[in-house]
Specification:
- The chain is of the alpha/beta class.
- It starts with 8 loop residues before the first strand and ends in a 14-residue tail after the last strand.
- The chain folds into 3 domains: 287 residues, HUPs (Rossmann fold, 3-Layer(aba) Sandwich); 196 residues, Isoleucyl-tRNA Synthetase, Domain 1 (Orthogonal Bundle), CATH 1.10.730.10; 90 residues, OB fold (Dihydrolipoamide Acetyltransferase, E2P).
- Strands 1, 2, 3, 4, 8, 13 and 14 form a 7-stranded parallel beta sheet that branches. A 5-stranded antiparallel beta sheet has the order 20-19-18-21-24. It has a 4-stranded antiparallel beta sheet with strand order 6-5-7-9, with helices on one face.
- A hairpin with a 2-residue loop joins strand 11 and strand 12.
- The longest helix has 30 residues.
- The structure holds 5'-O-[(L-methionyl)-sulphamoyl]adenosine.
- The site of 5'-O-[(L-methionyl)-sulphamoyl]adenosine has 18 residues, from strand 2, helix 1, helix 7 and strand 13.
């Protein structure tokens, strides 16, 4: 994206449902947003940037969650909204506002926007019949469901509903939306998400049901309080409503000619942001957002994060042990923005030790120790007429080149690339120190040693600023140890040699203390326990399964509880065979996965990767017979090729493996 480095900059996160305490996925979005906006603050000035996050507190899902806790919805949402705020504090998030959809300032704007759209003739009343998923708070089409009429995201049966509803004339905006995508080809990024949205709109838009009358926890429809406004219409409006109570804030919305809002969202909610939201704004005659920036999803050990799997990662526990900065670094460094990524505690510890403790932390430690030893703890700057070599010109040029790479990466909204570039400079600093060897030079040429150490301190100052958007708290400490007073010399680095002659360094505690293997074990155990605890807490707060509501005509029961019938021909499409386990081993860094080598007799040998590590130690699997689905399309799991699926027993939780009841030769078919 061609973000200019002057003028206002407005970035938002999705507002999170308060049905649950925040996990690493929510933290990821908020950290990405915080890093981008901190960078923009450095470049444009603090007042030019506005970073918004908040909570989505209305809707049936939350009404039910509160009922289950025997709380009023307001008490319930207050409780969890507070958890979000606390978490963002722990993670050093510097948001300019925190909008909650139950605030009056928001509700008023939602009603006003509704009224404007209604006055344009874009809202009408009708009946709606459809399949509703409470988890998504959305009607789904039959073609998008999994067998058994399950929602593909929530794996729960959808509910058949028929109710009176207001509709928004979304179909009327189909052409204008397509014009928008043609005119602003990067309206959604990455590009493949833009293509998905365009294809969706081209396939024809249906009007959108925008009110509900089956529950009351929402913003009343103006003039018809029997209905509440559809939670997505309510929620999307937050991006605009949060700016409306002060003129200086309102300016961040931009204009028709120069739209400003960048909505950072997870890939699963792009459609709401790139289709419904701009159409609503078009109808109301308001400026559109500048961009919908979609990021990928984190899985954990190769699997979707979910409470039933018990693999929900708690960002607070991690940042308390490693520092918020370390957690921020890891999530930003591990995956390019827009791609999916897999979270593993091992990878986190590995990056922590090698990149933060060894590369960056050591550079600071060694340099400060030498400055204390050889230079009485002060930076001794070279004189301006010193030779380029003494001034560390090569290092300076490298640092300038890295700054340019960081600028380019951030303009493209690719913070991970920026981090890569910055860490190449960290390594360069270590090499410079090794090669120039001030510890030897000090014996023969003390002035020369002073200059080398000065250059390293100056490099560290540049690094401290470049890395500040990513790791604000640890970088503030780094700069403090360099003797730089809070708020000075923290602007974007451009002049080499700004660190003042005579600055006294203040070596303090190690930035990122190395974690030895014993401590690693301890931490892994602790985090797993914290995960279990969070899981129990979340389950206590989780909404109950959908139940019929008292005041409305009882909705029909969930469409189907078990899978639909199939013909024998369907079954025959599955190639099921008995297979003997030749070898089995754990997949490094993937707690749940085993790599299994199988003998299928006349059908040869196969490698599969199976999520069964919790069931059995790999050694005890060797020699056993299992059942393999052989003609499943091969896939990469945990980075390894898997050609088939070992059949296991159990619904959500694994209970055992399917196996023949007697000895049969490997390769025997199931029928
Ligand atoms: N309330 C809606 C959003 C309304 S915005 C007008 C919602 N809330 S949510 O609580 O479900 O949060 C969804 C967002 O959380 C995702 O879009 C993404 O930003 C973040 N994530 C939740 N789980 C995630 C992962 N596993 N991985 C990465 N981000 C994820 O949808």
């Amino acid at each position: 994206m061609s973000a200019t480095s002057s003028g206002r900059f407005y970035l938002t996160t999705p507002i999170y449902y308060v049905s649950d305490v925040p996990h690493i996925g929510h933290a990821y979005t908020t950290i990405v947003g915080d890093t981008i906006t901190r960078y923009e603050r450095l470049r444009r000035g603090k007042d030019q940037v506005f970073y918004l996050t908040g909570t989505d507190e209305h809707g049936e899902k939350l009404e039910r969650a509160a009922q289950a806790k025997q709380m009023s919805p307001q008490t319930f949402v207050d409780l969890i909204a507070e958890e979000y705020k606390k978490t963002w504090q722990i993670l050093d998030i510097e948001n300019d506002d925190f909008i909650r959809t139950t605030e009056t300032r928001h509700e008023q704007v939602v009603q006003k926007l509704w009224q404007t759209i209604a006055d344009r003739g874009d809202i009408y009343s009708d009946r709606y019949e459809g399949l509703y998923c409470v988890g998504c708070e959305n009607f789904l089409l039959e073609k998008d469901l999994l067998p058994g009429n399950l929602c593909p995201d929530h794996k729960r049966p959808v509910e058949k509903r028929s109710e009176e509803s207001y509709f928004f004339r979304l179909s009327k905006y189909q052409d204008r939306l397509l014009e928008l995508y043609a005119k602003v080809p990067d309206f959604v990024s990455p590009q493949r998400r833009m293509n998905e949205v365009r294809t969706f709109v081209e396939s024809g838009l249906r009007d959108l049901s925008v009110s509900r009358s089956s529950f009351t926890w929402g913003v009343p429809v103006p003039g018809d309080p029997r209905h509440v406004i559809y939670v997505w219409i309510d929620a999307l409006t937050n991006y605009y409503s949060a700016l409306q109570d002060r003129p200086d804030k309102a300016a961040f919305w931009g204009s028709h000619e120069s739209p400003l809002a960048i909505h950072l969202v997870g890939k699963e909610i792009v459609r709401f942001h790139a289709v419904y939201w701009p159409a609503m704004l078009m109808s109301a005659g308001l400026p559109l957002p500048r961009k919908i920036l979609a990021h990928g999803w984190w899985t954990v050990d190769g699997e979707k994060m979910s409470k039933t799997l018990g693999n929900v990662v708690d960002p607070r526990a991690l940042s308390q042990d490693l520092s918020a900065s370390a957690l921020r670094y890891f999530v930003m460094r591990e995956i390019p923005l827009g791609e999916d990524g897999d979270f593993s505690y091992d990878a986190l510890l590995q990056r922590y030790n090698s990149e933060l403790a060894n590369d960056l932390g050591n550079l600071l430690n060694r340099s400060l120790a030498m400055v204390e030893k050889f230079c009485e703890g002060t930076a001794r700057r070279w004189s301006s007429d010193a030779s380029p070599e003494v001034r560390g010109e090569r290092l300076h040029q490298r640092a300038l080149a890295v700054c340019a790479q960081v600028e380019a990466a951030m303009a493209e909204l690719q913070p991970q690339k920026a981090l890569e570039a910055i860490f190449s400079l960290v390594r360069e600093g270590n090499t410079y120190l090794e090669q120039e060897a001030p510890f030897t030079k000090v014996k023969t040429d003390p002035r020369g040693a002073d200059a080398i150490l000065y250059n390293v301190l100056e490099l560290l100052r540049w690094l401290g600023v470049l890395l500040w958007p990513f790791m604000p708290e640890r970088c503030a400490e780094l700069l403090r140890q360099l003797g730089i007073a809070d708020g000075t010399l923290r602007s974007w680095p451009s002049t080499w040699g700004e660190l003042l002659d005579g600055t006294t360094v203040r070596k303090g505690a190690t930035l990122f203390p190395r974690i030895d293997p014993d401590r690693q074990k301890e931490l892994l155990e602790k985090w797993r326990a914290a995960r279990r605890e969070a899981e129990q807490k979340a389950q206590a707060l989780a909404p109950p399964p959908p139940a019929p509501q008292a005041e409305q005509p009882a909705p029909r029961p969930a469409v189907v509880e078990s899978l639909p019938e199939i013909a024998i021909e369907d079954f025959k499409k599955l190639e099921l065979r008995v297979a003997k386990v030749l070898s089995a081993e754990r997949v490094p860094k993937k707690d749940r996965l085993l790599k299994v080598e199988l003998d299928l007799g006349p059908l040869g040998k196969r490698q599969v990767v199976a999520g069964i590590a919790e069931l059995t130690a790999p050694e005890s699997l060797v020699g056993k017979s299992v059942v393999l689905l052989c003609n499943l399309k091969p896939a990469k799991i945990g980075g390894l090729l898997s050609a088939g699926m070992i059949l296991a027993l159990g619904d959500d939780k694994l209970l055992g493996l399917a196996a023949p009841d007697r000895d049969v030769p490997p390769g025997t078919a199931l029928r």
